[in-house]
Amino acid sequence: MGKLFKTLFLICLVALLTGAVWVYREYLRGLPSIPSYFQWAARVPKTSKVYAADGRLIAQFYLQKRTLILPDAIPDNLKLAVLAAEDAGFFKHGPVSPISVLRALLIDLLYGRVKQGGSTITQQAVKVIFLSNKRTLHRKIRELVLAYMLERRMTKQQILSVYMSSVYLGLGNIGFEEAAEFYLHKDCEALTIPDAALLAGMISSPERNNPVTHPELAEQRRLIVLDRMLKKGFIDRKTWQAARVQHPVVYSRPRPSLGTAPYFASMVRKQLRLLLGDHSLETEGLRIYTTLDTGVQAYANWVEALGLAHLFRQGRRRLADENHAHKTVGNAQIIGCDARAGHWIVRTDKKGLKVNIPFAWAQRLFFSDLAPCAVKGRVRLRAILHQSDGTLTGIPVFGPQAAITVIDPTDFSVVAMTGGESFDASRFNRAVNAIRPVGSVAKPFIYAVALDTGKVAPGQTFPNTPLALRAGGGRWWRPSNYEGFDNKNYTLEQALAYSINVIAIRVLLRTGITAVSEFFTRLGIHARVPHNLSLALGSLETSPMEVAGAMGLFAHNGMYDRPFLIRQVMTFDGKLLFRHHARPRRVLQKWVARKVREYMHAVTTYGTGRSMAGIPDAWGKTGTTNRSREVWFAGGCAGMTMAVYVGYDDRLPMPHATGANTALPFFKNLCLLLHKR
Predict the structure, then answer these.
(1) Which of 217, 283, 409, 549 pairs as cysteine with 556 (C-beta 3.0–4.6 A)?
(2) What is the pLDDT of residues 110-158, one digit of tens each?
(3) What is the C-alpha R_g of the chain?
């Protein structure tokens, strides 16, 4: 009997060990290692967010759209709604709830199939992080083991954070922060109990209980969650009654404020890559706080759109300017218009291709009160894009582009930036990358150096008479004025107000080309400063942002700092990565800066910019380059400094365009709006 017992014991032991090995090989081998919460948070892809100065979200960079809700920042309303919807005893039971498992087993037996999982939030967190949604015995066993392992590595609050940051909530939204932003246009902290119940109700079936696609089902589920919150004692009856009749306002898309400053955001992205190096914008969940003023940006957007539309109405169009320059007019013919699809259909000249042009890429037509389908004839295509569906999309050029940069001269922060008519059509940021001659905008700086070095006295006069200078190769250079010569003497103020070229050359001759070139270099303008007398006529090349920044020294009493867009950058968990430090330096004597600003005020009262005479604090300078390839107005008003540039990307001449009649209206309208703030 003893031998038989031993034999049976050995058989059972071998069977048990064999079963254990089989279970290990079939279910437990290759289980993933469980990270700590901070290891998981550091490596999971997160959305980096860009904020304006007032805290509004203006851009997001991501590979996977996810925002972490940190353990100590889970809002109470949302926590209670999620617990009521999914696992009310989460903080009381272990990784697995025996009661829930037994209840789920009975329901499954009743229906004859897997009907309910009985999973705790810990199990669901395991499923979201490590496993699939497929309901199989194999996955369930692994899930149970991993749940126990997870609660050994993380606290309950950390597990809840993982779950709430990772659960899918429909329409591409991962986690409650993204869902709150998408559906309700709120941050999680701002969610009311009715809001939280709506979102929590989506967990069990994100698409079926989606408030956008199935609002009735979403409302039914919201009421169920509220009932559970009352039953579990999470809310009192009075709160429950009020929450049932408070219906959350649901949106079908992200907040419309996103993307209002795409050129600004693209510049921020570029600068961040230079600042942070290996830090990945698309995965690390950075918080980027910028200098953008959303109100000023909205003004700049409107001014640019309306300004381009006004030029279009006046006849400033690509085809007309091509014709004047004796170039081939257009390279495509409009052969149709699909108002419902929102595009024109054109045929190209060379290959006879049919190409679509989206209406949205020609905003000036809408602001010109011209019905899109009324547009006929030829058009210039800058490029043709191949779409994934096999269609071709053309980028049109209906007229010149514009760029506006607005800077707060108290700290040289960039508060607004437009880089062109449509970011989708052209991501070339003309505010930063359009390095163009500035024309007479260079003259205030030349006069400033002349005064600062003592080479010219404030009350000194110069004759407006013809000038002949020996040029290279023994030739003579005879510069001209836009309005000719009158043989009178002018002060610096008058010469600047009327933009007299020969006087600017006389001042440059007295001051010295080297002194002026070095001054521009001190303003951050490098390698595009000519070392000859053409500098007085504006052959200096720079960008609208650098011009707006340089004008800041006149507003800031001779102090200058480099314009900046990013105030600080934080990690997802609140650690400081970068903070901007102001480094203002004096580049002009205070009296010189004020005196030249007075001269530029004269420009707007009786000079080339006299159409701005009704704006008392406005000052600035017009600029028109050779053959009117570019036109400018730069200066200040309402405590800001600004630069406006208008021109074609390929520098096609714009006949009869000047800084006064083409760029100044943009500047004036922006000043009028700023004064109404």
Answers:
(1) 409
(2) 554 444 555 889 988 888 777 555 555 555 677 788 888 888 999 999 9
(3) 34
Predicted local confidence at residue 19, as pLDDT: 47
Distance CA 596, CA 556 (A): 12
State how far the Cα of 281 lies from the Cα of 269, in Å rounded to an integer. 8
Bridge partners, residue 397, by sequence: 380
Residue in the structure block whose two tokens are 């949604």: 133
Query: What torsion, rounded to 10 degrees, do the Cα atoms 100, 102, 107, 108 define?
Result: 110
Judge whether residue 1 has pLDDT over 90. Answer: no
Axis-axis angle for helices 664-675, 294-313 (nearest 10): 140
The tokens describing 543, both together, are 């960008």
For CA atoms 410, 412, 413, 417, the dihedral sign is positive
Q: Residue 652 has what DSSP assignment?
A: -
Q: Say if CB 77 and CB 191 are below 8 A apart.
A: yes
DSSP for residue 567: E
Query: Would the pLDDT of 23 be above 50?
Result: no
Please answer whether residues 160 and 90 qualify as being in contact, where contact means their C-beta atoms are separated by less than 8 angstroms: yes
CA gap 304, 496 in Å, rounded: 27
| Polymer length of the chain | 677
The structure tokens listed for 153 are 């590595």
What is the predicted pLDDT for the residue at 135? 54
Q: Which residues sit opposite 645 in a β-bridge?
A: 403, 632
**CA–CA separation, 603 vs 634, rounded Å?**
11
pLDDT tens digit sequence for 150-207: 889 999 999 999 999 999 999 889 999 999 999 999 999 999 999 999 999 999 899 9
Distance CA 331, CA 182 (A): 42
Which candidate, 184, 163, 166, places its Cα nearest to that of 175?
166
Q: How far apart are CA 288 and CA 583, in angstroms?
A: 21
Given a cut of 60, whether residue 553 has pLDDT beyond it is: yes
Q: In whole angstroms, what is the distance from residue 449 CA to residue 519 CA?
A: 7
What lies within 8 Å, CB to CB, of 583 at 6+ separation is 561, 562
Collapsing DSSP states into helix, strand and coil, what is residue 647?
strand
DSSP H helical ranges for 87-136: 98-111, 121-129
Q: Kindly tell me if the per-residue pLDDT of 6 is higher than 70.
A: no
Q: At residue 475, what is the residue type?
A: R
- Is beta strand 566-570 parallel, antiparallel or unpaired with respect to 57-61? unpaired
Question: For residue 22, what pLDDT band results from cuts at 50, 70 and 90?
Answer: very low
pLDDT of residue 24: 44
Q: Are strands 461-463 and 489-491 parallel, antiparallel or unpaired?
A: antiparallel
How many Å apart are CA 65 and CA 339, to the nearest integer?
33
**In 398-442, alpha helices (H):** 430-433
